[in-house]
Specification:
Blueprint: E1 11-13, E2 16-19, H1 23-26, E3 35-40, H2 53-56, H3 67-84, E4 85-95, E5 98-100, E6 103-105, E7 117-125, E8 141-148, E9 166-168, E10 179-180, E11 187-188, H4 195-205, E12 211-214, H5 221-228, E13 232-236, H6 240-251, H7 260-273
Helix pairs in contact: 4-5
């Protein structure tokens, strides 16, 4: 099924490399300071998913580690990211607030014992949610932590500054691209990373030809963006066999939304043309 016979050989899709292994094993293949950029969204560790889990399930596996073990795992991933990232590189970590036994657990614990500088905390705001229990306000955002190693020497394409630190990105538009084989035997990734989110992270802090790592490649969004914009993508995904069709479909897709920078530039142009009232363009 896979494109290689040895576990430490990559599966290559349009020049992008995926290793079917746990990311902590994958990091062992990487030299110190060999990566220009890292962006990722780890598993939520909530033990399962929502109403349509027949389509979206992880089959025989699920993210249900004991909480302290999960936190230790994520912190070890962060330390490995620090090791392999170049001094001028950026690391974007997407984490959401989780509800455990009725208690809200924001992801600020990832800042403890963290070797990186926190350059900025960003908000990914989306228009809808599957968490519609009416005992709290519906959750409509997730955090993105932007980490760097050098406060003065980090790579940054500063035209992106104008998009602000709250990113309005739908997580619905990518759904069709992460679904294969409709029906009971169909498969869909439960939490695909939006293309616009990856575009923003990668294009704002890398140049063409840079090497980009996603330790939890999932449906392949990061590598899709790398293929489009001439970056060299590397990903680890220990359940790649289960999602191979989805990842191949996604990485090879030419369906790309406008970037947040393009949208912002367009709104600024319309504001100049229409006397400064942007309300009609904020749909």
């Amino acid at each position: 099924m896979l494109g290689s016979k040895r576990k430490d050989d990559p599966i290559i899709i349009a020049g992008q490399k995926i290793y079917e292994m746990d990311c902590l094993d994958g990091f062992k293949l990487l030299e110190n300071e060999s990566i220009d950029h890292i962006s990722t969204s780890p598993p939520y560790n909530l033990g399962g998913f929502h109403a349509d889990r027949k389509i979206r399930s992880y089959a025989a596996f699920s993210d249900d580690m004991p909480e302290q073990e999960y936190r230790a795992f994520i912190k070890q991933v962060i330390k490995e990211c620090f090791r392999v990232l170049k001094k001028d590189g950026s690391f974007f970590l997407n984490m959401k607030t989780r509800i455990i036994d009725g208690v809200s657990i924001p992801p600020f614990w990832v800042l403890d014992d963290n070797p990186f500088f926190l350059k900025q905390e960003l908000i990914w705001n989306y228009p809808s949610t599957a968490n519609v229990d009416k005992i709290r306000f519906f959750p409509l955002f997730e955090y993105v932590f932007w980490f760097i190693k050098d406060l003065k020497g980090f790579k940054w394409n500063n035209e992106w500054a104008i998009i602000g630190n709250v990113w309005f990105i739908s997580h619905i538009t990518d759904r069709n691209e992460t679904k294969v084989d409709e029906g009971e035997n169909g498969s869909q990734h439960p939490a695909p990373f939006p293309t616009q989110l990856s575009q923003t992270m990668v294009l704002a802090t890398t140049d063409e030809g840079d090497t980009v790592l996603d330790p939890f490649v999932g449906s392949g969004t990061t590598l899709k963006v790398c293929r489009k914009y001439n970056r060299k993508g590397i990903g680890f995904e220990k359940y790649f066999s289960h999602y191979e069709k989805i990842a191949r479909q996604r990485i090879l897709s030419d369906d790309f939304p406008p970037t947040l920078l393009e949208l912002k530039a367009g709104k600024n142009a319309k504001r100049r043309d229409y006397g400064g009232n942007l309300d009609k363009f904020m749909q």
